[in-house]
Every structure is written in C-alpha cells, then in structure tokens.
Amino acid sequence: MASTPCGRMNQHERGGIPFAAVSSMRSAASLVLVLLVPVTPVLAQSDSRVVVLENAPIMVLPDVNREPLRVVAQGTSLVLLAKPKYVGIDPAVSAYSRLTEPTQFAPQRPQSGLPRRVFLSADVASFHRHAGGERYTLTKTMYGEPAVGTATYAAMPQTSMAMPTVNIAVTRQLLVGARVVWPGYEPRAVLSLQLPHPFVADLPGTGTLVTEPLRRKDVIVDLKATYLVNRGPWAVQIFGGPTYFATSQEMVHGMDYRYSLNLNTVTITEVLRETATGAAWGANSGIDLSYYMWRHFGFGGGAHFNFGRITLAEEPLTGEPTAVSMGTTTLSSGVRVRF
Questions:
Q1: Which residues are CB-neighbours of 263 under 8 A, at least 6 positions away?
Q2: Is the full-model pTM beyond 0.90?
C-alpha cells in the first residue's frame, strides 16, 4: 500500500496492509478527488484506490490500548498494491468493512492443536525370536553302559500376525499404553536314542525320528511409557517398560522303542508328549514413526524389542528346571489413528 505526500504507510499484518478506515470510491466526486491527488510514479498503477474518510490510526493489532504506529490524515488517497480480504481499524473507531463485499469483520478462529490424546495402531507384525535351538538329553544306565535319549528343538521360525497397540496421553509428551500379542508356532523335534547291546559291550544301537508338529503358544503383554514427539504430520514414539510373558508348549516326555538284536538298530515307535507352561516378567523397548496424511489418520512402522526368560520348573524329558528364552524382535507397519 502507498500514500500521497499527505502521509506514508508501512505494510503490516493482515493481508499486507495497515489497519485504516477506508471506503471504496463510490461517487464521481470521490473519483475526481483521486484524480487530483498526485500519486508517487512508482505506485501509479491501475490498482484499487481508496480515500481515508477520517483520521485513522495504523495499528498492528485491533487493540485500542496500543499506541498507533502512525495516524493517517483525513482525505489521504491510498493505492492498494495487493487486494486484501479485510481493511479496517479498531471497532472503537470505526466498523470493519470488506473491500469486495460489505460485511461485518470476523477474525478467523485459531486452528486447534494437533490431536494428541489417544494414539492407536493396527499393524501387521513379524516376530523374530532371539533364541536358537534347544537340546535336552536324558542319560540312564543299562547293562552297565549309558543309554542316551536326546530331544533337539529347532529355532522358532519367523511368524506374522496382527498387532494392536493403544497409547493414552498423560501429558503433552508422555503416553502410557499397552500391546498384547500371542504368536503361535508348530515346531518339530528331532529325537535320537542310543542303547547299549544287551550281550556285546561297546556296541550300541541307535535310532532317530522327527516328530509331528508340536504346538506352542506364547502371550506377550507389554506395558509402556512413551515419549512423544508430535510435529505436524509426523509423530515419533520412543517407549519402554515391563513385559509379562507366558508360554504353553508341547514337549517330548519320553520315547517308546523296539530294539533289533540282529541288526543292532533301535526304532522309535511312539513319542510321549507333555505340555509345559510357565510365566515371568521381562522388559520391552522400541521406537515407532508415523506419518499422518490426514489430520487423524496415517501410516507408520516401528521396531519393538522384548527381553526375558521363563524358567520351567520341570523340563518334561529330563525332569530338571530349565530356562526358556522369550526375547523377540518385532518389526511392524500399518494404520495409525490419533485424536
């Protein structure tokens, strides 16, 4: 916006022009007035021209308690370099008016903050167990020599499943939440049996067998405290807390066999199974990154780490206590919701 030598205007907020009481040129007399008042050549364009009807203070904000930056004298002719949406002064001096359509000025409502109370995720997750295979050996004495039975369990394979997570805000950047997953497996065990010959020393017979799938079901309940970074469309969660582990798995309890003296071979004819159960507390930690293409909905992914062991009071084959690793790494991606 520019002015004649009667006064100089500076650009401020609200559409790039100062607050001033103005009126469009609506009469021939006003038009003549504009033509008679000189305008600086650099601003002499075919832009909208207005005339100040009364002395008008220039203010950054419509606040009568503020000292005006300058007072524009009555009759000053102004050239609008950019067409603003609203032009006006404080209501105590004059009513707001719109240049294009006369209307009551209504300040825009400030946009509310980002949603940050509840964060939900529905992911497809892949579980990778930290532990390798496990081997249990039972040794007895027969005919004065050792008889050895072994059950070897392969490492649990990678498995995928749905993984829901809920987080609720306690403060602007602290969330508390939970994750519950229940991965299932059907591993096989490799059995071996070595028995001494009943009549010939140091001539044992051996036999092996691969079992049918053994059912195993784990339950992992993560309780999490989360530090939230919620910036525009991006949200980052860094979390950790305690984890409750529980497991129920079929294991080999014993083996029935048939010994062939002529061939000196052992044939395992039946596998005896027993379900072992246990529970324990461990820990979890991880990070999740989300991008919200809409205000409340988006997509994301993350990595989740669990640490812990369950001690079985009695391993079925050996009858001795044993520790089972429950540690996992979970990689997940899916839908994100915040509100």
A1: none
A2: no
Structure tokens at 57: 């203070």
pLDDT band at 79 (very low <50, low <70, confident <90, very high): low
> How does pLDDT run across 143-188, given as a tens digit for each residue?
999 999 999 999 998 999 899 999 999 998 999 999 999 999 999 9
CA 29/CA 89 separation, integer angstroms? 24
CA-CA distance, 32 to 34, in Å (whole number)?
5
- Phi, psi values for residue 212, rounded to 5°: -70, 165
The predicted model gives 202-225 an average pLDDT of: 95
Helix (H, G, I), strand (E, B) or coil at 28: helix
Task: Give every CB contact of residue 120 below 8 A, 6+ residues apart in sequence.
Answer: 164, 165, 166, 167, 336, 337, 338
Polymer length in residues for the chain: 339
Does pLDDT of 100 surpass 50? Answer: no
Nearest to 129 by CA among 164, 153, 162, 165: 153
Structure token pair of residue 246? 């529980």
List of domains in the chain: 2-79 (no CATH), 118-338 (2.40.160.20)
CB atoms within 10 A of CB 124: 14
The count of other CB atoms within 10 Å of the CB of residue 79 is 20
Question: CA–CA separation, 209 vs 121, rounded Å?
Answer: 44
